From TrEMBL:
Its main location: membrane. Residues 50-217 form the Glycosyl transferase family domain. Pathway: Cell wall biogenesis; peptidoglycan biosynthesis; Glycan biosynthesis. Keywords: Antibiotic resistance, Carboxypeptidase, Cell membrane, Cell shape, Cell wall biogenesis/degradation, Glycosyltransferase, Hydrolase, Membrane, Multifunctional enzyme, Peptidoglycan synthesis, Protease, Signal-anchor, Transferase, Transmembrane, Transmembrane helix. SUPFAM superfamilies: Lysozyme-like. This is Penicillin-binding protein 1A. It catalyses: Preferential cleavage: (Ac)2-L-Lys-D-Ala-|-D-Ala. Also transpeptidation of peptidyl-alanyl moieties that are N-acyl substituents of D-alanine; [GlcNAc-(1->4)-Mur2Ac(oyl-L-Ala-gamma-D-Glu-L-Lys-D-Ala-D-Ala)](n)-di-trans,octa-cis-undecaprenyl diphosphate + beta-D-GlcNAc-(1->4)-Mur2Ac(oyl-L-Ala-gamma-D-Glu-L-Lys-D-Ala-D-Ala)-di-trans,octa-cis-undecaprenyl diphosphate = [GlcNAc-(1->4)-Mur2Ac(oyl-L-Ala-gamma-D-Glu-L-Lys-D-Ala-D-Ala)](n+1)-di-trans,octa-cis-undecaprenyl diphosphate + di-trans,octa-cis-undecaprenyl diphosphate + H(+). It is a single-pass type II membrane protein. One of its GO terms (biological process) is cell wall organization. Coiled coil: none annotated. InterPro entries: Glyco_trans_51, Glycosyltr_51/Transpeptidase, Lysozyme-like_dom_sf, PBP_transglycosylase. Cell wall formation. Synthesis of cross-linked peptidoglycan from the lipid intermediates. The enzyme has a penicillin-insensitive transglycosylase N-terminal domain (formation of linear glycan strands) and a penicillin-sensitive transpeptidase C-terminal domain (cross-linking of the peptide subunits). It is found in: Cell membrane.
Length: 233
């Protein structure tokens, strides 16, 4: 039994060392990806590029319920973390390992902004690592208000709408600030899977997603159940 125990301990040590080595390789590759990206174009220049868009919308021009819906469904600890939600990342890693596939991202709003500014949608470990480095840098340089504002001006809403104003004008025919509570919560659910929830493609699925958004808003105390039901009337 002692021999078997030593063998098991030895295998565990080897497995641990392999994990450390593999993790180190991905961290090294991810850091290089991050460094190469910011050397090609600085974060400041990228941000200015987004802000220079014709349909860029200031956060003050957006309904509060829309912003609350986005935070509830995308990153409910947005105001608490430093760019990376460790709990969400660990949960996503656990679920990905169980499924042996990228089934859950765990990305914060800041990480999603980093991806939108610099990286592709390709699911690679080193890209996720680069995204983390970029998110931390964004949090150092910009306020939460700035990050949320940049996020809603750089996400995809389906139907070739790449910012909140394009989506609001395209789907509802109105400025974002004039969206109703119903429209705000409906629009907030689309970026999770734009090709699935685009209103022109799958209005029924978009409505189902809206209910999920409202459930999250109830869970995180932005709405009561009665207020959520009234929105859907």
């Amino acid at each position: 039994m002692k021999v078997i125990g030593k063998i098991i301990k030895g295998l565990l040590v080897v497995a641990f060392l392999m994990i450390v080595c593999v993790s180190g390789i991905f961290i090294y590759k991810g850091y290089n990806m991050y460094k190469n990206a910011v050397e090609e174009m600085s974060i400041e220049d990228k941000v200015n590029e987004i802000r220079a868009k014709e349909n860029y919308t200031k956060i003050e021009e957006l309904p509060d319920i829309y912003l609350e819906a986005i935070i509830s469904v995308e990153d409910h600890r947005f105001y608490e973390h430093w760019g990376v939600d460790v709990l969400a990342t660990l949960r996503a890693a656990y679920n990905d390992i169980r499924a042996m596939s990228f089934v859950e991202g765990g990305s914060t709003i800041t990480q999603q902004l980093a991806k939108n500014l610099y990286f592709t949608q390709e699911k690679k470990v080193e890209r996720k690592v680069a995204e983390v480095f970029m998110a931390v840098e964004l949090e150092k340089e910009y306020s939460k208000k700035d990050i949320l504002e940049l996020y809603v001006n750089s996400i995809y809403f389906g139907n070739n709408y790449y910012c909140v104003k394009d989506a609001s004008m395209g789907y509802f025919g109105k400025e974002p600030g004039k969206m109703t509570e119903y429209e705000s919560t409906l629009l907030a659910g689309i970026p999770n899977a734009p090709s699935v929830y685009a209103l022109t493609a799958n209005p029924d699925l978009a409505a189902q997603r809206q209910r999920q958004v409202l459930e999250k808003m109830i869970k995180y105390k932005y709405l009561t159940s009665e207020e959520a039901e009234k929105i859907l009337e």
